[in-house]
Specification:
alpha+beta, three-stranded antiparallel beta sheet, 7 helices, 11 strands
């Protein structure tokens, strides 16, 4: 039996967004449970002139971590694409054919083939004249760089626009990568961790780690003969970043991306209303 309760019916893009939020929640649960199991340790290696501790990993990160991250990324990008298609069909006043739907997706001005894809939109919707410019503003709410960009009656500084574009570009890059291979999880040593061991101060350098890598080493000249490294092994799990961006904490960054996706959907909502009002 099919329910007719309107509260149970939601738009495609909101359903995709809610699914992304669920994946983010699941991601944090898996992530926190893994770190709570204290999977990282230090193994002592005694040498004639120094003591060396190497990273020891009792259990590798669950494969579900990278997969769940990819699922969240996929649903966030799908939410943007679904919103674009819904606007396009409202502008066209009809359900679009599969061939036309294939021309439509959320894109950014900095993306390759931006001009070509914009022309495809216009062709798919059969627009001409001033309607082209007005409609493209709905799909491209960030427009061209300027000192300020507007959302309704509010104006935001350029750095807000730049932060939005940065996160959305990262979303698109990660989504593309996840289509071709599973995203890479990396062990990462945070910066600024320092400890005292036998009266000797140890400071870790920031960087990536793999099992067997040296965590720290102490010269026997410091008067230390042997001993256990009684310290918490602080290791972050990070996702491989886009191109030259390095790495980033994937739970926190996913929340940042999600925020800007929600902002983009709200802006498209406003621009859609303004466009449709201009047509009437």
């Amino acid at each position: 039996m099919t329910s007719t309760d309107p509260e149970e019916f939601k738009s495609d893009w909101l359903l995709k967004l809610e699914r992304a939020k669920k994946h983010l929640h699941d991601l944090r649960v898996i992530h926190d449970q893994y770190l709570a199991s204290a999977p990282f340790g230090a193994k002592l290696e005694e040498r004639p002139d120094e003591l060396v501790w190497r990273l020891e990993v009792g259990s590798m990160p669950p494969q579900d971590l990278a997969l769940t991250f990819g699922d969240a990324i996929h649903n966030m990008r799908s939410a943007l694409d679904c919103r674009v298609i819904a606007i396009a069909e409202k502008v066209a006043g009809e359900r679009l054919s599969n061939s036309k739907l294939g021309m439509l997706s959320f894109i950014l001005p900095e993306e390759p083939n931006f001009e070509k894809r914009s022309v495809e939109w216009v062709a798919a919707l059969g627009l001409s004249g001033e309607a082209v410019t007005k409609c493209l503003r709905v799909f491209l709410p960030y427009g061209e760089p300027s000192e300020f960009w507007s959302f309704g009656d509010e104006h935001f500084p350029q750095d807000m626009r730049d932060a939005t574009l940065k996160r959305l570009k990262r979303l698109i890059w990660l989504s593309n990568q996840d289509k071709h291979r599973r995203l890479n999880l990396l062990c990462f040593r945070p910066a600024g961790a320092s400890y005292s061991f036998g009266g000797v101060s140890i400071t870790w350098a920031q960087g990536l780690l793999t099992p067997g890598d040296i965590i720290c080493s102490l010269s026997r000249a410091n008067g230390i003969d042997s001993g256990e490294l009684n310290m918490k092994i602080d290791i972050d799990l990070r996702i491989e970043g886009a191109k030259a961006e390095g790495t980033f904490d994937f739970c926190d960054e996913l929340e940042n991306i999600l925020y800007f996706v929600e902002c983009s959907l709200q802006i498209m909502d406003f621009e859609e209303v303004r466009f449709l009002e201009s047509k009437s």
